[in-house]
Design brief:
Number of domains: 3
Bound molecules: cobalamin
Strand content: 5-15%
CATH topology of the largest domain: Rossmann fold
Shape: globular
Helix content: 40-55%
Structural class: alpha/beta
Low-confidence stretches: 1-15
Radius of gyration: 22 Å
CATH superfamily of the largest domain: Cobalamin-binding domain
CATH class of the largest domain: Alpha Beta
Strand order of the largest sheet: 2-1-3-4-5
Largest sheet: 5 strands, parallel
CATH architecture of the largest domain: 3-Layer(aba) Sandwich
Number of helices: 11
Distance between the termini: 44 Å
Oligomer: single chain
Length: about 300
């Protein structure tokens, strides 16, 4: 019997009621949409029928879902994971039945989670990508998850595209899952900053995932974030700076054509002057006429938190 089965057992106030999709989703750290997909595709749904319109998950249903989640996190393909989960723990999953149909993404020194995420992305399995991301974000926080899970898989997927010309579909599925899991963690409700931080990608720049990682990591620390997103013209950024009066600004440039630091000169002079950071490999090297280069997520989080008055 699992913890969840116990929690729904004699100690629970109305054990016969079972749990709703939303409650199970919260308990397992899985999106409600993923639970519905697992129900539809693999029959891993609630077995109890209640008088009302909403079916409820029993303790046994939840134990099955916990096994499903564990197998998916270890990189087993969902159909095989579901077969083993439905066997009530009698059969371990066949671990050769991995995601990705035999394709690989090279991730030197990759963690098991990183290999699982890469396989799920290759299989275009957005649900499994989200399960792996959500679980790691909950357990390890944003900076660790970005540095040890997300960034290595993104670099591997990017290299595969460069070498084979294949995998833009994989890049899209993975990017969507990453962006939705990170952006779901950005909230200004717990803000304790003296000033906000503004995040934007340079004009013409569509790559934004590092900005979402930064937004989620700052939010985790109670820093108020204003996200302007992809392809932000310099004059629009300038207007936002005047209106918001931020403590810090970071502009992201991923690809070389988008990052000319000389353009930052056009930003308005406001007092107090916000810290201006330039992040990403797209910026021209060398000392910028305005602002400073920043090399990694931890450094950007630390400097922008200080600039926002959160130590
Ligand atoms: C995801 C992705 C996409 C997604 C973006 C989705 C989104 N919402 O952002 C989509 C599918 C839209 C896309 C599109 C394109 N992409 Co793209 N994409 C990537 C990918 C896989 C990850 C990008 C990313 O987030 N990188 C962030 C981290 C993981 O990587 P990094 O910047 O190299 O990290 C270094 C530093 O920045 C620093 N760092 C890491 N994290 C952080 C965080 C912070 C805050 C800071 C300060 C520093 C920092 O540490 C690293 C070591 O120095 C990269 C591969 C790669 N290696 O980056 C390709 C890549 C950037 N794309 C590339 C290209 C060519 C394109 C396209 C032109 C063609 C295509 N592949 O589809 C289009 C057009 C985009 C456009 N018009 O702007 C090339 C760029 C080559 C170049 N140098 O010009 C890359 C490098 C792939 C490759 N290997 O060739 N892409």
């Amino acid at each position: 019997m699992t913890n969840s089965a116990e929690a729904l057992g004699p100690g629970s106030s109305r054990p016969e009621m079972g749990l709703t999709v939303a409650a199970v989703a919260r308990r397992l750290g899985v999106a409600p949409a993923t639970l519905r997909t697992w129900d539809r595709r693999y029959g891993l749904g609630p077995s109890q029928h209640s008088a009302g319109s909403h079916r409820r998950y029993s303790a046994d249903d939840i134990a099955r879902l916990e096994r499903m989640r564990r197998y998916v996190l270890s990189g087993v393909a969902p159909a095989e994971a579901a077969r083993a989960a439905l066997s009530d723990g009698d059969a371990e999953p066949d671990t050769s039945a991995r995601h990705g149909g035999g394709q690989v993404v090279a991730i030197p020194d990759g963690t098991p989670q990183a290999r699982g995420l890469a396989r799920a992305a290759l299989a275009l399995d957005a649900d499994s990508c989200r399960v792996i991301l959500a679980e790691t974000l909950d357990r390890r926080g944003v900076v660790w998850t970005w540095d040890h899970l997300i960034a290595p898989v993104l670099v591997g997927v990017g290299q595969r595209w460069e070498q084979t010309g294949r995998g833009i579909d994989v890049e899209h599925v993975l990017s969507e899952a990453i962006q939705s899991e990170l952006s779901a963690r950005v909230t200004n409700d717990n803000s304790r900053s003296a000033a906000a931080v503004v995040l934007a990608s340079a004009p013409g720049e569509n790559h934004v995932l590092p900005l979402w990682a930064l937004a989620a990591a700052l939010s985790e620390r109670g820093v108020e974030v204003r996200m302007l997103g992809a392809r932000t013209p310099w004059d629009a950024l300038g207007q936002a700076i005047r209106r918001i009066g931020p403590g810090g600004v970071l502009v992201w440039s991923q690809t070389p054509g988008t990052g000319d630091p000389a353009d930052a000169i056009t930003l308005p002079d406001v007092r107090p002057e916000p810290l201006l950071l330039l992040g990403g490999p797209g910026w021209h090297p060398g000392a910028p006429p305005r602002g400073e280069h920043v090399d990694d997520l931890s450094e950007a989080v630390a400097r922008l938190s200080r600039a926002a008055g959160v130590s």
